[in-house]
Design goal:
The protein is built from 3 helices and 2 strands, in the order ββααα. By secondary structure, the protein is mainly alpha-helical. A two-stranded antiparallel sheet has the order 1-2.
Length: 174
């Protein structure tokens, strides 16, 4: 077989490719490449490749470190969000119980009713008297201030969790 030598190193030449020779538009000959010799880079080219590889390695390590920080920040925000959820669910529970006890005209002297009123007072107090609470002669009361309180606490709960999501999932450029 014949050998073909290039005046300058050619990159991307591989076995299985065709080598074809033309004189203008006239085909002179050709063949299939069966083997190649790797082009030996000059010292300058090797240094450039090494510098570029070093930059890529450094960037990759920096990105891994930043990703680990993002994951840790996300975990911390998720834990805080779970605590916030738990606290708000407790608030919802005591306020809903108070609302239901009012709707059913529960006896105010009952120990459980007094307990629920005592632990819900700090959450109900800012809304007490904000609107009228219609009631029947039998004592069944629709405590609308409790419903207003529930709506406000739901909005506050959503706002806090939204803020935590924004802190945990900070957008980064690529």
């Amino acid at each position: 077989g014949e050998r073909l030598h290039f005046a300058n190193p050619e990159y991307g030449v591989a076995p299985g490719q065709s080598a074809v020779f033309y004189d203008g538009s006239r085909l002179l000959g050709g063949g299939t490449i069966v083997a190649t010799e790797a082009a030996v880079p000059t010292a300058t080219e090797a240094a450039q490749v090494e510098n570029l590889a070093g930059e890529f390695r450094e960037k990759a390590v920096d990105e891994v470190i930043e990703t680990e920080r993002e994951v840790e920040r996300g975990r911390a925000a998720a834990r805080v969000s779970q605590v916030v959820d738990y606290i708000f669910f407790l608030i919802y529970a005591v306020l809903v119980l108070r609302l239901l006890l009012n709707l059913m005209a529960a006896r105010s002297g009952n120990a459980f009713v007094q307990f629920i009123n005592t632990i819900s007072d700090p959450f109900y107090w800012p809304f007490k008297g904000i609107v009228a609470s219609p009631s029947t002669p039998e004592g069944f009361t629709l405590a609308l201030p409790i419903i207003v309180a529930l709506v406000v606490y739901i909005i506050l709960h959503m706002a806090i969790n939204g803020l935590l999501r924004m802190l945990a999932h900070r957008k980064t450029g690529i």
